[in-house]
Structures are given as C-alpha cells and as structure tokens.
Amino acid sequence: MKSLMKSLAIAKKDVLMYYTKGPVVIFGILLPLFLFLAFSVGRSLPLNFLIAGLISMTVFFASTSVSPAIAPWEGQMRTLERLISCPIDEKTIILGDIIASMTFGVSISAVPILIGVVIGLIPSNPVVLLLGIIASAFCFSCLGLLFSAYPTNLPSTVMMISSLIRFPLIFISGIFIPISEMPEWSRILAYLSPLTYFTDIARYSFDLMPAFPIYVDLLVITAFSALFLALAVELHKKAIYKRI
Amino acid sequence: MIAIEAEGLKKRFGNVEALKGVSFKVKRGETFGFLGPNGAGKTTTVRILTGILKPDSGKARINGYDVVEETLKAKQSIGVLPEVSNAYPDLTAWQNLMLVASLYGMRKNEAEKRTVKLLKEFGIYKRKDSKVKGFSKGMKQRLMFCMALISDPEVVFLDEPTSGLDVMSARMIREKVLELASDGKTVFLTSHNMEEINMLCDRIALIDRGKIVTIDTPERIKAKVGGNVAVEVSFDKPVRLPRRLNAKKLGDKYIIYTTAVHETICEIVDYAKKNNVKIVSIDTRTPTLEDAFISLLEGTK
Ligand SMILES: Nc1ncnc2c1ncn2[C@@H]1O[C@H](COP(=O)(O)OP(=O)(O)O)[C@@H](O)[C@H]1O
Ligand SMILES: [Mg+2]
Fold first, then answer.
1. Which is nearest to A1 in space by CA: B180, B41, B188, B107?
2. Closest ligand to the CA of B205
C-alpha cells in the first residue's frame, strides 16, 4: 500500500515533467497520426476498419513514448541520484513510470475514439474496447521500458532504438492489412507482436470479424505484459546505477 | 551509539582504485568532516553510505542497518544532499518537496507543515510556486538542502554543500549545519574547504587517493604539524637555513613549526647576522588546518 502511494507520487512527477516534452508529443501523438494518414488516404477501406486501426496505432505510440524517455532524461538532468537516495526500490520507480506512461496512452486514445464518434462510428462494445485499451496501454508501457534498458543518458539514442522497434511492429500487426489477408510468413510474425492482439480487439469493437476470440487476445496481452515487466525490472535494476 | 560505520570499503572504476579500504565510525550527534583534495574518494564514499553505489568489498551501516542488505531501512533514516544533483526543473519548489516527502512515506498534512517550515527557514517560501528552472544556483542548493531535511532525518549527508555558491547562500548553509548539530543530528560533511570543516566539525577524517590519512579533532590534527606556533620568515636573498630548524619553503617564505618560539627566532636572527642577509618579514601565527593538511599529505607521499 505504502509502496503504491510512492509509485503514484513518481507517476505524478512523470506527468508534470514529461508529458509536454517535444519528443514525447511528436513521437507519441503527431507521428502516428501522420503515418496513419499517409497509409490510408486514397485506399478505399471501410471507415470502421480505419478507425479501429487508428485507435490501436495511437494507443501503441502514445504508451511507448513516455516510459522509455524517463530514465535517460533523469540521468541527463541529474535528478536520478536525488531520486534513488530516497527510501524506494527500483520496482516502485518502474511501476510509477508505467502508470504515467499507460495513463498517457489511455488518455490519448480518446482522440481517435472522438474522431470516430464525430464521423458517426460508435464502438458497439465500449467495455471490451476500454478493457483492451487499458490492458494494452500497460503492456506497451512495459515494452517501452525495454527500449531504455540500455544505460545511455542520451534521450535521442533511446528514441532511435524505440523507433527501430516500433515501426516494424506497426507493419506486422495487421493495422494496414488484416492478418487474414497476410502471406503465411508475415502471419507468423504477426502472432509475435502484442499489437496484433490489441488491433484485433479494436476491430471487434467496431463490428469487424476478429482473428481470435477476445479472451485469447486479452490473455496473450497479459502474458506479454508479465514478460516485459519482469524483463524491464531485471534490466533497469542494473542500468539505473550506470546512469548516475 | 554509532550512527555511521564504514569497514574496509573498497571501490574500483575500471582501473581507477577510488577507495582502497576506507574505515571509520561516526557517533550519533557528531558532525563529521570528510576532507580531501579533488578525486580523493569523498563522493564515492558518500554514495556507498547512502546506498547509491555498492562497494566491491567492505561493509557500511547506518544506525546499525547494512546499506546493501537493508538499503530501504538505512535510507529511511538519512537525508542526502548529493554533490552534483538537481531538483526537477519543471516542478515547483513545493512540488519537489512534496514528491520527496511522499517517497519517504510522510502523510500529506505532516509533509505540508514541514515544507512550509523549511521553505521559510531557507528564505525561499515566496518562490514556492515557481518552477525550479528559474532559480539561481544558490536557491537551487537551498531547495536541495530542504529536500534533504524534509523527513527530519537523524543522519544527514552533505557532499560539498557550499562549493560554488554565492556568499549569502554558503553562509546560510553553514548556519544550518550548526543548527542541525545543536539539534543532536549526525552530520556527515565533505569539503575541500579547510576553514569550513574547521569551523563546523567535531572530528575530521583526512582522505587522500582513496585512503584515510588520519581521523581526529581539528585541534589535535593541527597539533600534529609538530609545534603549536608557525614562524613565517622571508629574507632579501635566497638562504639555506640550518637543517635542525626543519623549515618548509613556501614561495619566498620559510615556515617553521615549533614549540620553542624564542629559541627559534633567536636562531633565525643569528643566522641572518652571520650570513649577512636581511630579514624582510617575520611573523608568528597558530598553525591552520591547511598547514596540517600539507604536512600530513607530504608524509604519505
Ligand atoms: N562513476 C565513475 N566512473 C569512473 N570513475 C569514477 C566514477 N566516480 C568516481 N570516479 C573516480 O574515482 C576517484 C574518486 O572520485 P570521487 O569520489 O568523486 O572524489 P572526490 O569526491 O573526493 O572528488 C576519482 O579518480 C574519479 O575519477
Ligand atoms: Mg566529490
């Protein structure tokens, strides 16, 4: 309980410090929007397919843009030593960073949902969609932490590493091409991406045929979260002391 | 009661041996000075004691808690002002203090009361709602000091707290150190400023190149220079004073540490007469910590 309060205090600090940082706004909100427009304009795809894709892309980019930025910035600003001399352990810090990052992802998802509502698309399963957004925002925030596990204090290096991983994931996760229409080899890759399962939930919420049962999607997302979280804690425990 | 205990601390960075077996004990309520030139290993020692670095070998305890095995318990009873560290620039002074208070597990109203008190004491209450990025260096350091004291800790670590500050802020920080001491807190203060250490500390450890040279009270360390009076003399031309005076040359001056002032001065005067040189100046003073520092470090070379 006490340690959760401490994580919340850290999350609050992250919100005040990092939500408005240039790279977070650019890579977390603007970029997915432009990328999406670039790939969908001119293709005659159904609107509900597009909105579902936009939602999954936005949640993915927003949730993976805050968490990896925190560690290198704290090292560079020299706030890290002050922070870790407080009586908190690495897990508390990491959990706080995840809460801040997933809150960003969940809040930003309101933008594409509202765009949908404006053009007359209302999710038929809002509860499932919300559940999916929360679970995957958590999962993607944990993934984002893996991008900053390499102990550098240069935010630009971390941004580069995360872009190298995020862009390929966008293309193999069935956002622009449904996985049912993919060739065999890229379908196998799609199964390995957590984003595939969230895209599936988003599609389902807008009355499209999902590739998996929804509970499978949620289970796989949870499993990925557990894996990413365990890895992130292990790696950051070591990296954090190399940043001072 | 022992508040801080270091036992054979060793730490290596690549091929730099930063600490080569550092041991000392600090009693509860004591102000302990850690004095040494740049690169001596002061910050490394502080970081190990505050649980930020793990030693390669050796043990450290705060109020009996091992800093490696029981890090959180050890950290809970300390307050730290790191050497190079910043408050969060996009947070206000108030938000920075409340953050640290939450991380120490303080309740909200208790934290708020303490924050108001500290901000007032350190003269930055009026700026409590300004973002820290607009603060001057001195104000930032005062805020960092407040952050170190927010939990009213029993043991306070201050790593070169006045280095590079304006006169007013440095003075305020020194006054606060004396106040902490009179409140019965244990203070661990590193510095390369002898006067500061001399003024504030009950005991001093002298550290050089990762090794403790001596630990004692300022007065006794001064006495270790080999006399209670320093005679400073200069001549109109270069001279070779008798060996038995054991004079140290410092620029154009010679310094002789002695307990027999009269005999020493007579001997200098005799020497000047006999060798036909003129004394340009002669002066006696009490040896300073700096004198002790120079002669003790010379002994280790
Ligand atoms: N993180 C580090 N990596 C490499 N070398 C370090 C590191 N920290 C300290 N050192 C080296 O260890 C020695 C002691 O440094 P430090 O404890 O900072 O000294 P002081 O605080 O007395 O000036 C120096 O030679 C310094 O260069
Ligand atoms: Mg130092």
1. B107
2. 1
